[in-house]
Amino acid sequence: MAPPKNVAKRMGAQDFFFTYGFLVIMFVVIALYSVTAPHFLSLPNFMAILQTAAPLLIIASGLALVIMTGKIDMSIGSMAFLSCCVCLKLINQMHLPILTSVALMLACGTLLGMVNGCIVVFLRVNPLITTLGTLIAFRGVALQLSNSQTVGLPDSLRAFGNMRIGPVFVTVIIATVVLVIMHLVHTRLSFGRDMTALGNGEEVASRLGVRVRGVTFWAFTLSGFFAALCGLVAMCQVGSLNPGIGNGMEFTAVAAVIIGGISLFGGEGTIIPGVILGACTLAIIENGLNLLSASSYAYPFVRGLVIFLAMYADSLKYRVRSKRRTIDASLESVA
Predict the structure, then answer these.
(1) 52-319: which CATH topology?
(2) pLDDT in tens, 125-149
(3) Contact (CB, 8 A) for 42 and 76
(4) What's this model's pTM, rounded to 2 decimal places?
(5) What ranges make up the beta strands (E) of 234-332?
């Protein structure tokens, strides 16, 4: 039995809003900036937007995996910062080669992700409480290692942050490779399908044969790895290690993921184009503010407003779709 025409029409409008709402907003923002901000539509500025978005694209790809399982990781910014501190400690004090230090840095981020995964999976602590605790703990360790000071990078790492192949920054290429790989993992491998099933309910996923603990553990582990990679890219772009690296990145990444259509309640969303849409929307907004010479106080306000709107839209989408499932179930029982 089909729903009444007015209900079906309303559902169609809601589907359009939830699917394309932020995309429409992004195009409106682009149109506004193209008129008001000088050089906004130029190729160099477009490349600068992608360069700015690269760390966010990387870290949001890892966070998306966790959120798809119906969990959350709020420690990604601190993991990025701590991994960077370990890298420079290895280079400056232990005099290890740069490539070795970078490899150990990525291993450090992976290990930190495993710590989160173990606490959530084996100790059965709520993911939000777990990662809020490790957010504080990891940043505290990092501040101790760095003495809360700004430390310069070796010339090769500093040059890497602005290295180009043609007009494209190498960091943008790295972010693109990460996105493509994670998209294939999500869409082509059983692990990706298991994450989506897990996000729709652990009990249901378990009945379908999903290894709930294993999927959750590896989602947090990958989140740690990509947090470390994000830290490396961000550190190289800045040209130094400073206490601001990764600070607040967890909230920006959550906003990027939700703007891209990945539900905070889990069970739905895409890496491509979802994460790209979310991260680029935020990067475009901040780039336009910069071109307009906006006050430095406007950035956190706009960022917070976007995060609130993303959270509200996701909550509204969840309520609407829950109500729709109830209506569909009622219609099926009547039929």
Answers:
(1) ABC transporter involved in vitamin B12 uptake, BtuC (1.10.3470)
(2) 999 999 999 999 999 999 999 988 8
(3) no
(4) 0.89
(5) 240-241
